[in-house]
Amino acid sequence: MTESQNTKPEIDAPEGPAPSELEIVDITVGEGDEAKSSSTVNVHYLGVSYDTGEEFDSSWSRGEPINFPLSNLIRGWQEGIPGMKVGGRRKLTVPPALAYGAAGSGHPLSGQTLVFVIDLLGVK
């Protein structure tokens, strides 16, 4: 896995069964301001399916980070980003219950465990 915020991360294909709980792994610990649950975050991220390893979304591919209130994002992000500091890179493995729900709930990613690598660029 790459470790620079200047480059799009690569995620190795996960092995074994998908976790049933949110997994949080700091790849790089930042030294800037800390994200809180009430923060608006500015992030670069890559998202892949745990089962296939296929990318389903990436701010890197669009060429610009996203800026959103954390409260508007999936629960896995709401629980996995607070405590992260600007300059950090964190991997979140998010089970369906904290992502887009059980299979058949209407979202194309429902029923899937998702893996994100998130670079925290700023908080407000």
From TrEMBL:
<dbReference type="Pfam" id="PF00254">
    <property type="entry name" value="FKBP_C"/>
</dbReference>
<keyword id="KW-0413">Isomerase</keyword>
<protein>
    <recommendedName>
        <fullName>Peptidyl-prolyl cis-trans isomerase</fullName>
        <ecNumber>5.2.1.8</ecNumber>
    </recommendedName>
</protein>
<dbReference type="GO" id="GO:0003755">
    <property type="term" value="F:peptidyl-prolyl cis-trans isomerase activity"/>
</dbReference>
<dbReference type="InterPro" id="IPR046357">
    <property type="entry name" value="PPIase_dom_sf"/>
</dbReference>
<dbReference type="InterPro" id="IPR001179">
    <property type="entry name" value="PPIase_FKBP_dom"/>
</dbReference>
<comment type="similarity">
    <text>Belongs to the FKBP-type PPIase family.</text>
</comment>
<feature type="region of interest" description="Disordered">
    <location>
        <begin position="1"/>
        <end position="22"/>
    </location>
</feature>
<keyword id="KW-0697">Rotamase</keyword>
<feature type="domain" description="PPIase FKBP-type">
    <location>
        <begin position="38"/>
        <end position="124"/>
    </location>
</feature>
